[in-house]
Write a structure and sequence with these properties.
This protein has helices at residues 40-49, 84-92, 107-120, 131-139, 186-201, 247-250; strands at 13-14, 18-19, 27-28, 30-34, 53-55, 58-62, 71-76, 97-102, 145-151, 157-166, 169-177, 205-211, 227-231, 234-237. By secondary structure, it is of the alpha+beta class.
């Protein structure tokens, strides 16, 4: 009699409390699990559909006590309809070339990453990252991952987006860009590019991570419609009624 090999159990752990990076005065905790071995791709697919995100070889999801502010969100790529601002951004970047490259860190990428962190996120943990930290962020992946580089006509790197390829879509892991090119709105353009690429590949979704309605810096994610949010264990369309009434909107 042949004994079937025992499948290694998947362990999940809860992190220690840390200050929330999105909402002042709140505490963040995560549930995390390792992505490794031959089943890493399949596990990552399942966890992504359950609202998890990836960092290095870890999948994580917030489990903050008394708080459900972080809501998983994904764009329905085939049905996406750009608004007037997004159409303008697409036209403003018509000269750029988006190239899919392997998940390999380069000195050129890191120089752009450093400038972006120094100007946009100087008080964040990533501002202190050295090249080897950056290389780990890009290359320490057990799944299909690549870097999308955006270059101008002079072949100058002005934006990049670390991207995971899933069975049902593309997942924007982290993007950074030349903040001196504000008129281009490169963060938005990177998402527009991923939507077009998902369509071309026949993939239904672009995963944007967590939408935090109370956080202004996360509000851009709600502007890509139609999109879906994960609530009560099920994906459903994001409706106008889900959007918060912000101070500047209340006095219109």
């Amino acid at each position: 009699m042949h004994q079937r090999p025992t499948k290694r159990p998947q362990f999940f752990y809860t992190t220690a409390p840390l200050p929330c990076p999105y909402l002042a005065g709140r505490t963040e905790r995560k549930i995390v699990t390792e992505l490794s071995g031959g089943e890493a791709e399949t596990l990552h697919d399942r966890l992504s559909r359950a609202g998890f995100r990836r960092s290095h070889n870890i999948a994580y999801s917030p489990v903050c006590p008394g708080c459900q502010a972080c809501i998983p969100i994904r764009i329905v790529a085939d049905a996406f309809a750009p608004d007037r601002t997004q159409r303008r951004i697409r036209r403003a970047n018509a000269d750029l070339i988006g190239r899919e490259t392997p998940a390999r860190a380069t000195a050129e990428q890191f120089a752009l990453f450093q400038r972006y962190q120094r100007i946009r996120h100087s008080d964040g943990d990533m501002a202190a990252m050295g090249f080897y930290d950056y290389r780990a962020m890009v290359e320490d992946t057990p799944i299909t991952t690549g870097m999308v580089e955006f270059r101008d006509a002079a072949d100058r790197l002005i934006g990049a987006c670390l991207t995971d390829w899933l069975s049902d879509g593309l997942s924007a892991v982290y993007s950074f860009f030349d903040v001196g090119e504000d008129r281009r709105s490169l963060g938005t353009y990177a998402i527009l590019w991923l939507i077009a690429r998902a369509r071309a590949l026949g993939l239904p979704y672009v995963y944007l991570g967590y939408w935090v309605p109370q956080s202004r810096k996360m509000a851009y994610k709600e502007r890509f419609r139609p999109s879906e949010i994960l609530t009560a264990g099920a994906w459903r369309p994001l409706e106008d009624s889900d959007l918060p009434v912000r101070a500047h909107e209340a006095v219109r």
